[in-house]
Amino acid sequence: MSVREKVVRAAVRLFAEKGFEATTVREIVEEAGVTKGGLYHYFESKDDLLFEIYAAMLRMQTRRMVTIAESDLPLPERLHTIVADVVVTSIADLDAATVFFQSFPLLEKSKQVQVRAERRTYHERVRDLVAEGQRTGVFRDDVPADLVINYHFGAIHRLGMWYHADGELSGEQVGKHFADLMLRSLCP
Fold it and tell me: Fewer beta carbons under 10 A from the terminal one: N or C of the chain?
């Protein structure tokens, strides 16, 4: 594992356990087993580290979403797969997702703007699939596509508040249920 990966993993663990504000750079480097210079080689600040935790997840989820969205699968299957995938990948790295959503307001404003723009791009691409289905009669069109997306992604962004790995449902099961709920809400 690279120094960069060690730093990110240590930060996720500590931010999840202690909170972003209560975690010091010294604690991160001790947990990672690296030097401060090693951390600062990759990240200018703790804020940059928090930003990277979320950006890495969003980049990965966006790549996966685009691949699915551009596939030859029927539209309902593409949407179902995308929703299930974002739930499964969020749960797979739930500490990182939780840390980010709890600590987002602590990011400097310019980074908040950047994150919102990148997340909006993701949501708009998925919204476009819903709108396409509404235009073609595959999905009901009496609820605006933006509202459908905001409702469902709002729930997904709160997984860290209630999901537990040792609970009744696996990440795959939760992903399937979320995707089923979205498609059922769109049935004509």
Answer: N
